[in-house]
Design goal:
With 680 residues, this protein is mainly α. Among the domains are: 1-145, Serine Threonine Protein Phosphatase 5, Tetratricopeptide repeat (Alpha Horseshoe); 612-680. It has helices at residues 2-11, 16-21, 37-44, 47-55, 63-72, 76-88, 95-107, 111-123, 130-135, 138-145, 153-169, 178-189, 196-205, 210-222, 229-241, 245-257, 264-276, 280-287, 297-309, 313-325, 332-343, 357-372, 379-391, 395-407, 414-426, 430-442, 449-461, 465-477, 484-496, 500-511, 520-532, 536-548, 555-567, 571-583, 590-602, 606-618, 625-637, 641-653, 660-672. PPR repeats lie at residues 228-262, 378-412, 448-482, 519-553, 554-588, 589-623, 624-658.
């Protein structure tokens, strides 16, 4: 002890008076470890330990060093067992390891263990660190021990087991587990003397578990243990914050039965919680508990917002009116939230433009109420109403409101123009959309892709691809990226007009505006358009360019190309593309063969037409009505009545059923040969 006192005095760790006042408890037994001897021995003789001991030039680890490692890893029980083993085997004790263990137990608020190991170290005259003495809290140690003197011997064992569970559940760390509440209930059932302060301590520990705190408070009330009004208020407010409104309502009744008058804050919290649940009945009930001077705007704002989100304009307007009657004075922010809820599409809607007209009318009614109550609308208010008109398809009203905003010098930004232009594009008001986009550019506002793409889409929808092409060029000049589908539609229009060079120039422009790069659809339009004009070389060149871009053709593309060559009387080219289709490992379709059969029939080459017809079963394809019709038409053109009759019989015996247009086609084919009757 003299060595300990001398070392501590020299290092300034603890005074002699502190050492003399330190409580002397039993030092013979520290806390025992629950793990078995086998697990420790297995760990010590593990391959890693044995190998390091065999091959390392250093000395093997001692039990004290192993205990220090376990403390660093957080295995305090295992370290305690190792130190107990050292004491029993009378090995030299390491003061540093004891200091680490005491500090670790104290950090975890396990003060009984910390005090026990502190006394054991002092009995062995070890020089402990000052941090170990500073970490141990004697007051916390007494709280950990508990009132053992109130129980008999058997009850004392149960008490310590329960205290251990409470400690492991976090009682001493301020977060009480369910075991603490179970202990209090068990103590009450065993008719043990329980004080109200015990429940207060438990309730304070349940700050992160309001459900358990409410149960504990109800239990204390049933035992007629008087609780403070502040305790009720804190638990009720915590329940409201976590959404436990039923628990909070029950505690309000219990509080009233205990003779305490709930504060207005409690009623306001419950009212706010019911408003968050959209429970109009609950909001009405708790509002009735408050005086007009005690109300707040939040419940009225929430209820109006939720009714607006459901499109209930009358109910939303009524809640705002009640807020004005209660002299709560809803401000611009409150009205803007309600207006935004009206202009937002229903939850689960696939598109933001599927807004019912009644919701836009509700936003307009709220806007008018706002003006009537002398609340000056701001730019956000106008923006929400404008968005509602545009999304519901009320384009004329949206244009009128936009003009009013400009006349009143309301701050009109890009969002307002985008909403207006998208609404006009959806209504196919291409000319009007172009006018407003031009005005946006004149006003020196930064028009983005949304505005330009809306105008381009409106022109493409009405088939005015030239105007759409002009706006696409303006987008590229402004370093904006058009939508890929718009490029493809312009290319398709150029192909249909027979302007392949212009179509290819648009594809070249696509390459310069990533990420809207050419895709399979872009090349499909070009290659099929070249095939329809019989330009085999251009079709092959563009197809090769497509393959260089690592785009894989599909059966639809080959079908359109073969059909185009067949209709342009380029029979050999169509046959070559059918072979290329097989070379690209794309399985041919019935439409490909039908195009070849029709081409041969028009050229009155019945032998080749029958050849391609017979290829269908070989390719595991089923001939359809078009296949038979093309072949029979070829027979009629060559006046092969018997063959036409035979093919017609095969058609009737197959799954295909010819209709009236089929027979009318055969009659027209016979008329082309100067005949007046179809084959029998």
């Amino acid at each position: 002890m003299q060595a300990v006192a001398r070392a501590l005095a020299n290092q300034g760790k603890v005074s002699n008076h502190q050492r003399r006042c330190w409580p002397r408890q039993s030092v013979s037994a520290g806390p025992l470890m629950l793990a078995s001897m086998a697990s420790i021995v297995a760990w010590m003789v593990s391959p890693g330990i044995c190998q390091s001991a065999a091959h390392s030039p250093q000395r093997p680890l001692t039990l004290q060093q192993i205990a220090g490692r376990e403390i660093s890893n957080g295995n305090l029980r295992q370290a305690a067992w190792l130190l107990n083993t050292c004491q029993k085997s009378q090995q030299a004790a390491d003061p540093e390891v004891y200091s680490q263990l005491i500090t670790a137990f104290a950090t975890r608020r396990l003060m009984r263990e910390a005090v026990s190991w502190m006394n054991a170290a002092m009995a062995m005259d070890l020089e402990l660190d000052a941090a170990a003495f500073a970490a141990v809290d004697l007051h916390q140690s007494k709280k950990d021990v508990g009132p053992r003197e109130e129980l008999d011997e058997e009850g004392r064992k149960r008490w310590w087991r329960t205290v251990s569970r409470m400690r492991e559940g976090g009682l001493l760390e301020g977060t009480v587990g369910r075991d603490a509440l179970l202990y209090l209930q068990t103590a009450c059932q065993s008719r043990l003397k329980v004080q109200a302060t015990m429940f207060e301590d438990a309730i304070r520990g349940f700050r992160d578990d309001p459900d358990s705190a409410a149960e504990c408070l109800q239990c204390a009330s049933k035992l007629r243990l008087e609780q403070e009004a502040s305790t009720f208020q804190s638990v009720i407010m915590n329940c409201c914050m976590h959404g436990l409104l039923d628990k909070a309502s029950a505690l309000v009744d219990t509080m009233a039965e205990s003779g305490w008058q709930p504060a207005p804050d409690i009623y306001r919290a419950l009212c706010h919680g019911q408003a968050l649940r959209h429970n109009e009945t609950g909001v009405e009930f708790w509002l009735s508990k408050l005086e007009d001077t005690e109300m707040e705007l939040a419940p009225f704002r929430l209820m109006s917002y939720h009714r607006a989100a459901k499109g209930q304009a009358a109910s939303s307007e009524a809640w705002l009116e009640r807020a004005h009657e209660a002299a709560l004075h809803p401000d611009v922010a409150c009205y803007n939230e309600v207006l935004a809820a009206f202009s937002r599409p229903n939850k689960g809607c696939a598109t933001e433009w599927a807004l019912p007209a009644k919701r836009a009318d509700g936003a307009w009614r709220c806007f008018q109420q706002m003006r009537h109550k002398a609340v000056e609308p701001d730019a956000g208010s106008h923006r929400s109403v404008l968005r509602g008109f545009a999304r519901s398809g009320l384009t004329r009203r949206s244009v009128e409101l936009m003009q009013q905003m400009l006349d009143a010098n309301v701050a009109v930004d890009e969002t307002c123009y985008n909403s207006l232009l998208c609404g006009l594009a959806r209504a196919r008001e291409a000319a009007l959309a172009s006018t407003w986009l031009q005005r946006m550019v004149v006003d020196k506002l930064e028009a983005d892709e949304v505005a330009f793409n809306a105008v381009v889409s409106s022109h493409l929808d009405i088939g005015d691809w030239k105007k759409a092409a002009q706006w696409l060029k303006r987008m590229v000049i402004r370093n904006l990226t058009p939508v890929r589908t718009h490029y493809n539609e312009v290319i398709d229009y150029c192909v249909q007009e027979g302007e392949l060079d212009k179509a290819y120039s648009w594809l070249t422009l696509m390459k310069a505006t990533p990420p809207s790069l050419p895709d399979l659809v872009s090349y499909h339009h070009l290659v099929s358009g070249a095939a329809a004009l019989g330009k085999e070389k251009q079709a092959a060149d563009w197809f090769g360019e497509m393959r260089c871009a690592r785009l894989t053709p599909d059966p639809v593309m080959f079908t359109d190309v073969i059909h185009g060559f067949a209709r342009s009387t380029a029979y050999e080219a169509a046959t070559a593309w059918l072979r290329r289709m097989a070379k690209e490992t794309v399985h041919p379709t019935v439409a490909c063969y039908n195009a070849l059969i029709s081409a041969c029939a028009r050229q009155r080459d019945l032998q080749r037409a029958e050849h391609w017809f017979e290829e269908l079963p070989i390719q595991r394809l089923q001939p359809d009505e078009i296949s038979y019709k093309a072949l029979i038409r070829g027979c009629c053109l060559l006046d092969e009545t018997q063959k036409a009759t035979r093919w017609l019989q095969k058609l009737q015996s197959s799954r295909c059923r010819p209709d009236m247009p089929f027979y009318m086609g055969m009659i027209n084919a016979r008329d082309a040969r100067g005949r007046s009757s179809p084959p029998e």
